[in-house]
Amino acid sequence: MKTTENISLAGYxxxxxxxxxxxxxxxxxxxxxxxGGSDMAEEIAADxxxxxxxxxxxxxxxxxxxxxxxxxxxxxxxxxxxxMAQSDIEQESPxxxxxxxxxxxxxxxxxYRNIDERVLGGVCSGLGLYFGVDKVIFRLAFLIAFFIxxxxxxxLFLGIAFLGYICLWIATPxxxxxxxxxxxxxxxxSLEGYRAKDFELGKEVKxxxxxxxxxxxxxxxxxxxxxxxxxxxxxxxxxTFIIPALPQIIxxxxxxxxxxxxxxxxxLPADEEMIMAQITDIHTFWVLLAVTAGILFVxxxxxxxxxxxxxxxxxxxxxxxxxxAWIISLLTLCAWTIRQVAExxxxxx
Length: 349
Description:
- There is one protein chain.
- This protein has three domains: about 5-95, no CATH class; about 105-210, no CATH class; about 215-349, no CATH class.
- Helices cover about 70% and strands about 5% of the residues.
- It has 15 helices and two strands.
- It has a two-stranded antiparallel ribbon with strand order 1-2.
- The longest helix has about 30 residues, at about 320-349.
- The radius of gyration is 36 Å and the shape is elongated.
């Protein structure tokens, strides 16, 4: 059994085995010593410590203990401190200021979609980071072009806003890995990385569904659908109280029809008389119909309330219980009706 330590790296807590803790501490000391003569020593050390924290969060699930193998893997990915220090010293030349300035220009950044600060696909946020301007400017530009195209009927602006955004979304890869996020921000430390596929439809659709804009549309759509279900459920539930009166209404309509066609003869043929009696006198059918319709409209009301007020369903899932009860009542109604029709046909024949 190995002893462990609790540490904090870049604001994140980790549980680490003692031998791995000592190895990591020694590695961080070597980094500080290697960059001790640089004006940016503290900034570089903090940046590498943040990088170590990012890599640990990539490979560790909650509750996992960091071991020596993980630390050695991270050291290999980040690189040798002495080599990085030598590279940094070589930049301490008359061209140092120009090199530092280049780290702040788009030439040392790569264009990615910034999905961590996205509203929809992260295109505008990624463009803002790449060009070093506020992402809001790009968002406003796309919105203005879109509304000009819609309200001023200028297809060019509509195409730029809509098709341009979609093309940038597809063509620009998302910054998903820690390496890609550092490249997007122009971080000065060079690291070995791996590349995800530029565009994966399934992952893009999932990310779009989780974006703030999609969540807002989902909420508005949920409220709208919920209100429709509430209206349909309330109206339908009230209509179920009319079902017991339907036999009398049907009987009245049938006799009105008889009066129109057989003004002198009020008698129906025997088979038609029997069918009318089956329709109007069998109360079981109307009870089953009322129960089936009532359960359906209660289900509408329940889902309408849940969607309108964005509530979470209880663990016993009343919506599912209502739906199953409706299916059972519907099957019962159908089976009973088929049986009665079969009896009527047999009697007539």
